[in-house]
Amino acid sequence: xxxxxxxxxxxxxxxxxxxxxxxxxxxxxxxxxxxxxxxxxxxxxxxxxxxxxxxxxxxxxxxxxxxxxxxxxxxxxxxxxxxxxxxxxxxxxxxxxxxxxxxxxxxxxxxxxxxxxxxxxxxxxxxxxxxxxxxxxxxxxxxxxxxxxxxxxxxxxxxxxxxxxxxxxxxxxxxxxxxxxxxxxxxxxxxxxxxxxxxxxxxxxxxxxxxxxxxxxxxxxxxxxxxxxxxxxxxxxxxxxxxxxxxxxxxxxxxxxxxxxxxxxxxxxxxxxxxxxxxxxxxxxxxxxxxxxxxxxxxxxxxxxxxxxxxxxxxxxxxxxxxxxxxxxxxxxxxxxxxxxxxxxxxxxxxxxxxxxxxxxxxxxxxxxxxxxxxxxxxxxxxxxxxxxxxxxxxxxxxxxxxxxxxxxxxxxxxxxxxxxxxxxxxxxxxxxxxxxxxxxxxxxxxxxxxxxxxxxxxxxxxxxxxxxx
Length: 470
What we know:
This protein is of the alpha+beta class and 470 residues long. It is 37% helix and 20% strand. It contains 18 helices and 19 strands. It has helices at residues 3-15, 24-27, 51-64, 115-124, 141-146, 154-157, 160-163, 193-196, 230-244, 256-265, 294-308, 320-331, 333-337, 355-369, 398-402, 405-419, 434-440, 443-456; strands spanning 20-21, 44-46, 68-71, 87-90, 97-101, 106-110, 127-128, 164-170, 176-179, 205-212, 214-215, 219-227, 248-255, 279-287, 313-316, 343-344, 347-349, 374-380, 385-391. The chain starts with a helix and ends in a 14-residue tail after the last helix. 50% of the residues are buried.
């Protein structure tokens, strides 16, 4: 029996039949990421039920130098959870909420907890877990932290890195670091938790985390505004931010084509305004105070913008059903875009003050490079994150269009470098952007990443081939 076979046998004994999948049919769903850009292979999918089992599996793999690809809900977009051999270690069975502390405003949960379930548990305790994503019904908190997920509430609450207070991690040699500290002030050396948040499982496996909670909103106001152009969107953002302050929780931008896709392809969606507009802004204000006049604030700002022509039309949600309908329009864009053929996607960020410049230059560039391309750029304007997605020209060959992905990426990345932007705002690096990262960031920055990787994972068994190569 080979060393790999011995290791696999030991792993199977460690996790038992419920934690072991090795049939082709059983493994298949774990091998492909959500955009179908990558398909991997592995010897088995391992589903440990505890941190102790995870540590034992990693220890065995370390001795055998068997590669490990950590995986949560497998909702990623950059191939970060797609294996190239070895095993997949899936955290889905580690799904206990260990503690909720309403006074300390923290929730301690295992990596396999589905985000929506954590949101519901926080709400039941009278609190808010503000991390919110379109995939929250299936994504897991371990994956959210490993990719430093963003979402629709980053403007007010920050992304996953700002929300995590402590983590428990199985290191590449099988040791367990218990960093589950619910402290808002802890100045004892390096902030090690931040090594693992956003590392995409390349430095260790997050098995549990302490997350910040916030007072549950008691008042909210949500509106969709139709605007004549992107400049008007940015002007409206400034007006509302200046007037509403910290109550501005979400500010999302959609072009007309995105709304058309969402209405055309997603059942139940409809255009809530009477006519078409070049751009749309989805705005949400929230407050933990029941008497906060948020609706009045939003209505007044939109009314002033209507008078100056910066807003052409607007609708305010009058109940939760209408609010959910407006958010569904925004959150269903990515799914709707699939029905329009191939899509070249960019998850970029620039300073908010540079969004207009980026959009103008990037749009002109891609329309010159690919005549007939349909720019479907939408996203979190309030934090500078735009999903600069390109749908294939109507009637074009999908494969030929997607074959231009790398060439267009390079051009977009050059523009981002010039503007001080980022090639990945919230989706991570994974396989898709690993080589782009090496070309995009300064050599000294990549070298520091490699040194950290080599120090913690010298045998390169932890999610090899992702983020950086050593």
